[in-house]
Recover the amino acids of this structure.
């Protein structure tokens, strides 16, 4: 490896000189970008996230059906296979299905009815919905004509299209992390900053408060909060409220990071110089110190978000999270967490792939950012 | 030793379970378990096949070798004509006596009764090899000293069992009672009733006592105790133990936490008279015919030799003895040792159960046979058959899936109690590899899978108006697509059912179950139109005509243990969208929900309607038929304040309308009537009729059948027959045995 | 220094007391108490629920008294070493904890061992082969455990093992459950322990791998490494000799923070796998408002957290002279 790079250095001498020049002249952000591009996993991660957030944004349009649409008598329908071939290449289509109940195990058995075919249609006109709650329309990205069913991930336990559920569910699951983290971020930044920059009595007080907050157990707090919010608040609203409240308690860790970094930076000459020259505390932090640790904070945040997404699924499992009829990834996973689903209807478990992909993507992006955060480091 | 090969029979789609079951003393007999499929029609043209394990054909051509008794099970067909007349709705659990004898012929209060009724005698009593060895070693008195002079005789429902083996169960440790269901099911009461004994006194036999005598005018009850009956530590159980309980526990508020109503006449305790060591009489002063039913499952006695140490009347050092154990005084120690409903969690407290508690660690609890148990089978074998029971403990609130896996992996003999109808597919699929059988029984005490009672006493004037309008309830009931509920959630096993009490009740009439149970959205909408609830401009929701606000009902629910609660609410809310009523379903932790019920702050009570058997109602109160349509101290579904007003005679709560007052009066009058009388029937009929007519508490679909699963090595399982009234198929009892 | 330590120590005690008060209140915050939970459970199993019984139990458990009296009684007893009783299990709390803590610590330690071994290896590989496909492959594998919801992972693995005919759940097969220790029982334990070890372990692997990779990358850029490389030291020796040792430092120094986790175990995985550990019991006690066991356990865990922080702070301050002591 070492010899390889040495050889490369020799052959492209002039090119590397130019590159070096560009490197020295480039702005910090350009360098971060360049550095980030090197981390291919991070690029994959950021693309996945872009796709998922786009899906969430356009959920009503991207989902084949409306979120409440139920197909009676079609619970636990396996995924429909899209076919291209029949007597040669054809326009993609799906077969109709027939169902009956096994008289002994009482489970539903679905069989293909190959006599009826429904071609796939792009920009299909299906279930009516209000896009972003504003415009009434019935455009869907993809679909088949009723009574054909396009169930790309199959149906859930009461006969709703699972893919639709996943896409709608991403709205809650993908935003919950951002909300929680940003609350902690704001408080942590401000209080950590004050603590680290001023030190002394203020620092001591804030540190003691942080220690106290960190030692408050969160699960009982969660149980208590979910019982004491106004009863007429919806499920999702309550959940967001609890996340926000817990973030009010959970900023301590971040504040400590900020404080530690500030303590270090504060002693640096240029900061002392600025202070001596009478730059106000706020300006000093903002102009001279913030750029120095902002990148670290962004990394910390990127890595905190997937934790919140997983937390949502975990709380749903414990019965403390979001509940039906609200749709979130946690709800979908909770529903698939039983033997029947895993053994007999494995497609019900498929939402977990979206969770895993998202969490991996966030982590890779975070790692990429971390590598890129200090671009002057070789 | 002869082995007869079991023969496989295929009926419909049902595979056949079979086993070779040994007789008590070595010879093997052929057993054949046959699976029936029973067809029954559900309304709306849906016909469903339910495969059902019903019974065995216990052809036992070979007799016991060492037992000098001539009696044996009769051929299967002999008495089949005398099978109890199972009514059609009960088809799923029709009591199938193997050899067709009527149920009365299965349990006998004493050998004398057995001889009198069957003409057969029991000459020799036998004991388990495990105990015989102990007797031989000199660590245990002989069987003759341990058994009462006349033990209770029980004819096992399928076969005479074989001694020995360890049963593996799984359960939750809980306060009040360790492994509730299990310990409750093995506890015996003073009297024992027929399988589905209602409040009819004639259907009860003496159980723990040898015989009882209710005076003709029902003013006194005499109990004749079993001479020589022993506690599990070998001490005699005599009249002293009865008077100890009656005088020093029951009447002492510090020591007795239960309801004393059934021991009082006109708010005064009944009088107890000790006639001799084995005879006691309770005098009531006035007729109290209900007493046998009311006391049937009670155990009005306590081990005075054991608990006396902590009672000042029996031991002057009681306080000191208590303090020695770390309690403040004798009360603490006494309570700790006596713990109600918790006999089995105190290894040292003497018991009369078939198995006595041995030890309990974080991962398991274990029980061992009671050497002094007082029941024998018809061949004189002292029960129980099974030597010991090992219960793997799991955390309350733990995930049941791992338990199902362990059961299917043959690690437990009984399926975990959380098995429900939705597990049927996976259970059935693994039946063969897991070597077990699935037992399906109709849920007899639960009328409906989920019942709904609007809060009629709500403080919101508009909601009060619509909730108290019967058309609002009728519309809601008509909007429910019950066939869809059954197909989607319950694998098609339930039928529409709206009545608050199940069809086995006295006073139930056939129309009640399906009253307003049809699916008719148009009629429902017409009813709401008639009420004057207009639609909003989008024609989406109905609004309050005065304010124009959309009518929103906050549907708070808990009932997490049902497993189907979330799906049910989702489907119901979708149905009610069709009639323009906007429901906001919300799961709430049960504690919080109860506090909202009691505070009268909720819109609607949503709960499963279990625990509403007629007998329970008669010995307590008909909780499903009067506000709050559930137990007051738990889950008061609706209008708790009305009941409060009635109980405190107007001091607290809110005054109910006249009709509700009439319901209260009717209900409490009914408790004073005698079972079997015309008064009894007419009163309860009127009460049910008022409830059904008004749909105060109305149901959705009938409760799904209970599903249990039992290893094929376990035989004589309750639930394959409604045996002993225990929870069907859920737990072992003294005649259950393990194929060795 | 001494006065600083003393001050911190006193503060630590104060913190533990305050936290115990707060936890006690928080646990009681939801409506109802243990008795209401019990009533619902009775009703759910079709039993008769009598008001008199419930009132009696309330008096017996002391739940009829105001919260502060309950707290005072409990805390006073804790000071005397009596952690109270569990209502649910009708047993002394200390006994329950004692029964479970060994198993919990065993599983936690094994999981930690797994997480650190796998994490360190993955960290080294992905640092040495930075931005190569080997890096990407191992990073993805390492992160998979972190990214998959534990309860589902546990369930799916159990089903797979079940389908292969293995015994799942718990720590022992039923046949060994109540047996004294024997070779067979030990082998049985070995069969059951890998599942929780891997599930809990993989969740922690990513964190270790990440730190390892970052610090090792830092080290590899340092002058001494470059010098060594230019002198022709083989690549393997080059990496193993010093950089790895140095890169292990931050990982080892934070191991102490795992202390409370070792004692409590993980709630969710243990619930799914049906393990008799501390975590699920704490959760169950919290949900049921089983006051004393919940409070005592929380007190125990917060004490560990606070003591852990105290020790790490003291170490940090005494090791780094640049940080002033305030």
């Amino acid at each position: 490896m070492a010899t390889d790079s040495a050889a490369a250095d020799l052959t492209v001498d002039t090119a590397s000189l130019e590159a070096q020049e560009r490197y020295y002249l480039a702005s910090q952000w350009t360098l971060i970008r360049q550095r980030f591009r090197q981390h291919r996993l991070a690029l994959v991660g950021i693309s996945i996230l872009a796709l998922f957030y786009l899906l969430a944004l356009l959920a009503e349009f991207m989902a084949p059906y409306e979120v409440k649409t139920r197909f009676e008598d079609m619970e636990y329908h396996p995924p429909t296979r899209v076919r291209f071939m029949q007597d040669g290449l054809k326009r993609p289509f799906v077969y109709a299905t027939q169902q009956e109940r096994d008289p002994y195990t009482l489970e539903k058995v679905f069989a293909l009815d190959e006599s009826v075919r429904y071609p796939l249609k792009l920009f299909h006109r299906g279930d009516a919905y209000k896009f972003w709650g504003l415009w009434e329309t019935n455009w869907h990205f993809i679909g088949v004509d009723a009574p054909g069913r396009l169930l790309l991930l199959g149906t859930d336990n009461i006969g709703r299209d699972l893919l639709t559920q996943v896409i709608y569910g991403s709205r809650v699951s993908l935003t919950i992390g951002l909300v929680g983290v940003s609350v902690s971020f704001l408080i942590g930044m401000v209080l950590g900053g004050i603590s680290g920059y001023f030190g002394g009595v203020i620092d001591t007080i804030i540190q003691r408060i942080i220690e106290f907050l960190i030692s408050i157990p969160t699960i009982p707090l969660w149980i208590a909060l979910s019982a004491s919010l106004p009863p007429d608040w919806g499920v999702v609203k309550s959940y967001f409220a609890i996340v926000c409240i817990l973030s009010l308690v959970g900023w301590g860790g971040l504040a400590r990071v900020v404080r530690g970094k500030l303590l270090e930076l504060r002693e640096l000459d240029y900061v002392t110089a600025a202070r001596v020259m009478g730059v106000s505390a706020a300006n000093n932090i903002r102009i001279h110190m913030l750029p120095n640790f902002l990148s670290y904070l962004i990394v910390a945040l990127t890595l905190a978000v997937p934790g919140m997404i997983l937390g949502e699924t975990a709380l749903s499992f414990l019965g403390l999270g979001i509940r039906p009829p609200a749709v979130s990834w946690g709800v979908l996973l909770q529903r698939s967490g039983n033997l029947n689903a895993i053994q007999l209807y494995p497609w019900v478990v498929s939402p977990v792939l979206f969770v895993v992909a998202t969490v991996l993507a966030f982590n890779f992006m975070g790692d990429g950012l971390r590598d890129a955060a200090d671009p002057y480091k070789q | 030793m002869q082995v007869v090969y079991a023969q496989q029979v295929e009926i419909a789609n049902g595979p056949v379970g079979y086993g070779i079951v040994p007789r008590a003393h070595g010879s093997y007999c052929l057993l054949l378990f046959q699976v029936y499929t029973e067809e029954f029609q559900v309304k709306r043209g849906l016909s469903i096949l339910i495969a059902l394990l019903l019974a065995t054909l216990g052809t036992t051509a070979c007799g016991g070798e060492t037992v000098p008794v001539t009696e044996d099970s009769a051929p299967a067909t002999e008495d089949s004509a005398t099978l109890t007349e199972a009514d059609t709705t009960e088809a799923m659990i029709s009591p199938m006596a193997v050899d067709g004898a009527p149920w009365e012929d299965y349990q006998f209060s004493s050998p004398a009764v057995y001889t009198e009724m069957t003409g057969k005698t029991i000459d020799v009593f036998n004991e388990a090899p495990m105990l015989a060895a102990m007797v031989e070693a000199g660590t245990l008195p002989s069987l003759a000293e341990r058994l009462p002079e006349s033990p209770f005789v029980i004819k096992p429902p399928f076969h005479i069992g074989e001694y020995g083996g360890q049963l593996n169960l799984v359960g939750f440790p809980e306060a009040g009672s360790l492994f509730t269901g299990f310990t409750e099911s093995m506890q015996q009461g003073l009297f024992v009733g027929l399988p589905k004994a209602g409040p009819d006194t004639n259907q009860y036999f003496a159980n723990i006592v040898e015989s009882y005598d209710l005076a003709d005018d029902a003013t006194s009850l005499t109990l004749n105790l079993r001479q020589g009956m022993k506690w599990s530590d070998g001490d005699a159980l005599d009249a002293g133990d009865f008077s100890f309980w009656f005088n020093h526990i029951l009447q002492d508020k510090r020591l007795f936490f239960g309801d004393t109503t059934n021991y009082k006449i006109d708010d005064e305790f009944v009088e107890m008279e000790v006639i001799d060591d084995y005879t006691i009489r309770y005098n009531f002063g006035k007729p109290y015919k209900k007493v046998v039913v009311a006391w049937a499952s009670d155990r009005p006695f306590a081990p005075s030799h054991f608990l006396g140490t902590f009672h000042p009347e029996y031991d002057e050092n009681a306080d000191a003895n208590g303090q020695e154990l770390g309690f403040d005084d004798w009360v603490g120690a006494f309570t700790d040792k006596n713990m109600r409903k918790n006999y089995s969690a105190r290894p040292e407290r003497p018991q009369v159960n078939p198995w006595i508690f041995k030890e309990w660690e974080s991962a398991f609890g274990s029980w061992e046979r009671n050497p002094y148990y007082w029941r024998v089978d018809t061949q004189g074998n002292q029960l129980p058959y099974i030597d010991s029971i090992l219960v793997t403990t799991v955390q309350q609130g733990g995930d049941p899936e791992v338990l199902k896996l362990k059961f299917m992996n043959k690690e437990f003999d009984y399926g975990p109690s959380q098995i429900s109808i939705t597990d049927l597919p996976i259970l059935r699929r693994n039946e063969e590899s897991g070597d077990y059988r699935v037992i399906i029984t109709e849920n007899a005490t639960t009328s409906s899978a989920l019942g709904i009672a609007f809060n009629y006493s709500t403080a919101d004037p508009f909601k009060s108006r619509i909730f108290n309008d019967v058309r609002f309830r009728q519309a809601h009931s008509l909007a429910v697509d019950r066939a869809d509920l059954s197909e989607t959630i319950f694998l098609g096993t339930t039928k529409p059912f709206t009545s608050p009490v199940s069809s086995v009740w006295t006073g139930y009439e056939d129309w009640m179950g399906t009253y307003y149970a049809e699916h008719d959205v148009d009629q429902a909408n017409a009813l709401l139109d008639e009420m004057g609830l207009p639609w909003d401009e989008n024609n989406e929701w109905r609004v309050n005509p005065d304010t124009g606000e959309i009518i929103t009902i906050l549907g708070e629910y808990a009932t997490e243990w049902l497993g189907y609660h979330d799906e049910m609410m989702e489907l119901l809310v979708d149905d009610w969208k069709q009639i323009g009523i906007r429901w906001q379903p919300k799961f709430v932790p049960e504690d919080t929900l109860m506090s909202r019920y009691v505070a009268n702050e909720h819109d609607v009570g949503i709960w499963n309607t279990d625990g509403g058997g007629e007998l329970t109602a008669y010995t307590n109160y008909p909780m499903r038929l009067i506000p709050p349509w559930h137990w007051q101290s738990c889950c008061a579904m609706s209008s708790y304040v009305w009941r409060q007003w009635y109980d405190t005679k107007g001091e607290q709560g809110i005054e109910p309308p006249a009709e509700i007052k009439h319901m209260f009066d009717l209900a409490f009058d009914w408790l004073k009537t005698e079972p079997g009388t015309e008064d009894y029937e007419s009163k309860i009929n009127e009460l049910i009729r008022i409830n059904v007519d008004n749909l105060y508490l109305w149901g959705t679909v009938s409760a799904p059948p209970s599903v249990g699963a039992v290893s094929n090595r376990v035989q004589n399982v309750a639930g394959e027959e409604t045996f002993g009234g225990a929870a069907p198929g859920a737990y072992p009892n003294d005649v259950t045995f393990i194929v060795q | 220094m001494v006065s600083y330590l003393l001050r911190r120590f006193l503060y630590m005690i104060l913190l533990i007391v305050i936290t115990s008060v707060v936890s006690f209140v928080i646990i009681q915050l939801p409506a109802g108490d243990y008795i209401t939970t019990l009533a619902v459970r009775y009703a759910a199993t079709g039993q008769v629920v009598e008001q008199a019984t419930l009132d009696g139990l309330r008096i017996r458990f002391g739940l009829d008294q105001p919260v502060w009296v309950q707290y005072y009684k409990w805390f006073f007893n804790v000071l005397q070493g009596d952690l109270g009783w569990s209502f649910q299990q009708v047993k002394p709390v200390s006994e329950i904890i004692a029964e479970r803590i060994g198993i919990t610590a065993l599983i936690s330690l094994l999981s930690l061992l797994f997480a650190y071994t796998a994490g360190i290896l993955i960290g080294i590989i992905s640092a040495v082969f930075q931005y190569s496909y080997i890096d990407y492959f191992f990073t993805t594998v390492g992160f998979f455990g972190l990214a998959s919801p534990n309860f589902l992972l546990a369930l799916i693995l159990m089903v797979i093992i079940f389908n292969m005919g293995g015994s799942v759940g718990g720590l022992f097969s039923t046949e060994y459950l109540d047996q004294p220790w024997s070779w067979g029982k030990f082998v049985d334990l070995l069969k059951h322990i890998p599942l929780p070890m891997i599930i809990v372990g993989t969740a922690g692997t990513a964190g270790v791998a990440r730190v390892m990779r970052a610090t090792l990358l830092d080290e590899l850029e340092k002058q001494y490494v470059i010098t060594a490389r230019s002198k022709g030291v083989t690549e393997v020796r080059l990496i193993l000799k010093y950089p790895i040792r140095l890169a292990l430092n931050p990982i080892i120094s934070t191991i102490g923070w795992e202390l409370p986790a070792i004692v409590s175990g993980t709630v969710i995985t243990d619930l799914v796998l049906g393990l008799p550990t501390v975590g699920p019991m704490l959760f169950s006690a919290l949900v049921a408002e089983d006051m004393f066991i919940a409070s005592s356990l929380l007190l125990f865990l917060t004490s560990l957290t606070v003591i852990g922080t105290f020790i790490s702070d003291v170490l940090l301050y005494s090791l780094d002279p640049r940080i002033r002591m305030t």
